Amino acid sequence: MKQFVYNDKKLTKFIKASGCAAKLDPSGLTQSIAEILEPNAKILSSLNSNEDAGVLMLSSDLALVQTLDFITPVVDDPFLFGQIAAANSLSDVFAMGANALSAMNIVGFDKCNFSQEILHEIMAGGKSKIKECGAILVGGHSIETKENIYGLSVTGSVHPDKFWSNNTAKVGDLLILTKPLGSGVMSTAIKGDMASLSQIKEAVSIMSQLNFYAIKACDGLEINAATDVTGFGFLGHLSEMLNERVSFEIYENVVPVLKSAKDLASQGIIPEGSYKNAHFTKNLCNKEANILLSDAQTSGGLILSVPDKDAYKVLANLKNAGYERAEIIGTVKSKGEFGINLV
């Protein structure tokens, strides 16, 4: 077994908030974007459901998938931070059921507190994940900033009729979550020097795991809708999957959560962004939810809405592909009083 090496360079000590917990409030962001985006016949992806990436028609059998994402450090090791940030950026393409073709670095670097060697390690970590999924690093852009940020602009491809949307779940589907929740709590604990090395190792393992392999696990099977879980938390991103015909029934106690995150959350170690997320979704839920269901994730797993006939095959494939904590966490019901029913 490969030894876990953690090169602690104090990256998280010079930032206000870690990873996707630094995202803008979801309610304000949605309003701002709605006033900017305009429909176009070539845009295939929805403009009003906060899709993970944009899908642009190029021809009858080819569509371009574009996204960008960047985050502040969630761990203190520069190489591992680069890996997690890249996995987080690439995930938006995979959440659309697409292949990643190329990527460009997005860098904001705090050169007052960190040497050029640190920047090299961050980008080397990112490159390792780009190569792992078969994409090509083609360049990038950098500026000097007060806080370190790193991420990617990613270009992918997909058949115009086969990409996954986030709001097309159908009644009778089963909902699968591919990774456990809790990375927001873990990142907060790491920033506060309250996480053990074994807890850091577990968090890094989850956050650096590419969602690329989940796409392969679903090959040939029907997926009605999908999204990835990041800064708005599980319930926030689940709410983006609602449509006028469906509600969700969620088996609250089955949703996988890292044990370390449960332990640390019980001590009050919860990122501020998680409380904002909980406030955003509270009126959609039939009861008050565990705050960990709103935990602001970085490089979280996918939520897949899968027809019953394929769901257990998808789940078995996911576990064989390395998503050992993947679980069926709910069902899609006809539209009811609440969008999300926790049972």
TrEMBL record:
Protein origin, superkingdom: Bacteria
Signal peptide range: none
Cofactors (names): Mg(2+)
Positions bearing the site annotation: Important for catalytic activity: K23
Keywords recorded for this protein, A-Z: ATP-binding, Kinase, Magnesium, Metal-binding, Nucleotide-binding, Selenium, Transferase
Binding annotation for ATP: K23, S49, N50, E51, D69, D92, G140, H141, S142
Free-text remark on how the cofactor is bound: Binds 1 Mg(2+) ion per monomer.
First-tier enzyme category under EC: transferase
Cited SUPFAM superfamilies: PurM C-terminal domain-like (SSF56042), PurM N-terminal domain-like (SSF55326)
Gene3D superfamilies tied to this protein: PurM-like C-terminal domain, PurM-like, N-terminal domain
Catalytic function, reaction form: hydrogenselenide + ATP + H2O = selenophosphate + AMP + phosphate + 2 H(+)
Domain PurM-like N-terminal: 51-158
Domain (PurM-like C-terminal): residue spans on this chain: 170-340
Catalytic residues in the record: C20
GO biological process, one term: selenocysteine biosynthetic process
Role description: Synthesizes selenophosphate from selenide and ATP.
Protein family membership: Belongs to the selenophosphate synthase 1 family. Class I subfamily.
Protein name: Selenide, water dikinase
The species this protein was found in: Campylobacter iguaniorum
Name of encoding gene: selD
